Amino acid sequence: MGQIVRHLDDFLSLNGPVIRVALTRVRGSSPRNEGTEMFVTLDHLWGTIGGGQLEYIAIDRAREMLRDGVLHLDLDVPLGPEIGQCCGGRVELSLTRMRQADKRDAIIHAQDQAAQLPHVYVMGAGHVGRALADLFQHMPVRCILIDTREAELAQCRADVETRLSVIPEVDIANAPAGSAFIVLTHDHALDFLLSLAALEKGNAAYVGMIGSATKRAKFRNWVRLHGDDHSTEQLICPIGASGSRDKRPSVIAAFVAAEVIADLTSETAENAQKWDMGAPVTGSQADQKDSTALQRRD
Q1: Domain segments of the chain: what residues?
Q2: Superfamily of domain 118-267
Q3: What is the pLDDT of residues 54-72, one digit of tens each?
Q4: How, if at all, do strands 119-123 and 206-209 pair?
Q5: Which residue of 117, 154, 212, 268 lies most exposed, with the fewest beta carbons within 10 A?
Q6: Containing H/E element for 235?
Q7: Element (H, E) at 146
Q8: Per-residue pLDDT averaged across 197-210, rounded?
Q9: How far apart are CA 84 and CA 105, in angstroms?
């Protein structure tokens, strides 16, 4: 059971009566998609249906239900001037007091969502790799931080899977289709080997290697010299080259994480929605640029 599922289990078990708030229908523009849910107790929240006045209304009604003993309520809310919101759409909400069976179903549903999360393999646990792990632990992905060096892995404080691997090519070979691979090891030759292994899978959602346009050109030449005609066009190098030349690990990681998540969620909004795991909230509210100056080395 992953961290988010464990936390949801604790939330549903330890906070007394709970109201499940679900978006059952969305018409027009809305801050969240149909199927999004949030859980409300008298003092705490889990997840969000988009914030703003819509969420305030849902929370207030849910807590009224808890105080008054109401079991179910449907709401039809226009997202316009009537409630001080300007999305312009309209949503229907279902508010239901959860039974024990409902809570068990919610945990099973969360486990199913967790099993469908895309895998992100951070190949290298140096400064940038650890900064990426710090970011990905909060995102709807399963992050696996891999290194051949135990001491570097031991410095990771993020709640992600860490894996000491003597032959990381095996981890790439065994990764599921649709995975993302970010290659930033301590060794250029190893970067080349792992990037090629990820490209040769033919089913990766993202393959990126830290470096510069010069390193990318060297990688292409290296592939040709080894007699492999596999296309390198899918390779992203430099990674995170969105305009900033700031080389601090945390800044590089922010741009790379945004790049990876954009690729993972670009197919359809439906894919992004199915990976939406939610998170606990307390209180009441919840191409590439060719420039050697972008060279980034852990």
Answers
A1: 3-114, 118-267
A2: NAD(P)-binding Rossmann-like Domain (3.40.50.720)
A3: 999 999 999 999 999 999 9
A4: unpaired
A5: 268
A6: strand 235-236
A7: strand 142-147
A8: 95
A9: 35
